[in-house]
Design brief:
With 116 residues, the protein is mainly alpha-helical. It has a domain of 72 residues. Helices cover 52% and strands 11% of the residues. The strands form two sheets. It has a two-stranded antiparallel ribbon with strand order 1-4. Helix 1 runs antiparallel to helix 4.
């Protein structure tokens, strides 16, 4: 998208035309397919399990069980490369957001972040 046209500056040596200023093309994320939607659903379940953890006495045990079950399903659904990317994003984002970034946005992480 063109923001503005670059001006032409007159000089004693001739005119200088500055380049046009444009924004990079915006790309919308891909919509998740059935496999990705299932994984994101398990990510939401894993995040929601933290709410169960605030129940006195039994909440912590139930949260651990729910987290383990949902995480095992996520690991089954994702490929090895997707799981490595998810694990990197999951360090700083909730599981559902990390899965959406992994499966919908398909960003390329630098190799240094992926341990390679």
């Amino acid at each position: 998208m063109k923001v503005f046209t670059g001006p032409k500056i007159p000089t004693p040596f001739g005119g200088i035309k500055l380049p046009d200023f444009e924004t990079p093309p915006l790309s919308l994320p891909t919509m998740p397919d059935a496999r990705a939607a299932k994984a994101i659903g398990h990510g939401l379940g894993e995040d929601a399990a933290q709410i169960v953890g605030i129940i006195p006495w039994i909440g912590d045990i139930a949260q651990d069980i729910l987290n383990d079950l949902h995480h095992a399903e996520i690991k089954k659904i994702l490929t090895d490369d997707e799981y490595r990317t998810f694990a990197e994003y999951n360090k700083s984002f909730p599981s559902a957001v990390a899965l959406a970034r992994t499966l919908c946005f398909k960003e390329d992480l630098p190799k240094a972040h992926l341990g390679g």
